[in-house]
Amino acid sequence: MKKQALIISFLVIILISHGIAIGAYSIVEFPISTASGNQKNVAIDGNIVVWEDTRDVDSGIYYIYGYDLSTQTEFEIRRSTSRMEELAISGNVIVWRDYGYDTADVYAYDLDTDTEFAIAGGSGNQYLPDISNNIVVWADDRNGSYDIYGYNLSTQTEFRISTNNATQDQPAINGDIVVWEDYRNSSKPDIYGYDLNTDTEFLISTKSTTEMNIDVYGDIVVWKDLGANDLTLSVRGYDLGTDTEMLLCSADSNPSMPAVSERFVVWDDIRNAQGRDIYGYDLYSDTEFLVSTATETQYYPAISGNTVVWSDNRNGNWDIYGATIPEPTSIFILTLSILAFLLKRKK
Predict the structure, then answer these.
(1) What is the domain count for the chain?
(2) The whole model's pTM is what?
(3) Amino acid 6: pLDDT
(4) Cα-Cα end-to-end distance for the chain
């Protein structure tokens, strides 16, 4: 028993020496854009980060800027006298809501061809676009209440996704799965989904609480749940593959704006009472971890792979910051496996 206890102690030292104690992550944080004015509402896919930028707003010009993480290069994408908001990116295509005229429309920009093109306009408002591969989705009130529409970039074809007469709002897409807020059952939204491959709509979550701020990656759907009387806030998830709901964050900290990648979920919350901070959850190890608690406010995170980006006003105006969540080393994984085996034998 003494020998086993010594081995366990040695393995724990190895874990700590590799910078990852049990339940902790060694996060590497870095600035992306600290230009004058405000940089907000950031999105990321792979090595490309994009955001809306008002560094020259006094002249009436609004920008979309980008940053290549692989070359550490910032670049201007688009400038306009109209506001360009609610950015999303997939591969080489960026989409956004554009306030060019009296209503909001959805536009896109191809980084490979340096070409801007319209996705949806005309009557009503089109807003909250999202994109995955060749499919763009958005909320659209051309029929009186908001519905979910889609557009296939390959075939240049628009199609309607939700057909219920009630309001459907805040869509998100990954692969063939589209999810959204849906008010067909009550004044507090439920979560519905649609499989583009099978043309099938399905219910994901229906409660007496408000469910909002939805995101999806693969089989994992995440959202903010306001709880009873909109006072017991949490971040929840649902695995479409196993039909299992998960509680990811139940801290009394007003968690908000969850985003999900293959392995990690991130969100902002106010548990530290100094403005919002960024927290994360590892779906593989069921572990919550801290991403950033810098001074002032960090909020609206986005994630791609193990890279998190967010809006940050630690410098007095809104900037863009990022962080890399480290992958466990092979030594760490092997050590953790041996440690788990020994602890199980010890019981």
Answers:
(1) 1
(2) 0.87
(3) 62
(4) 11
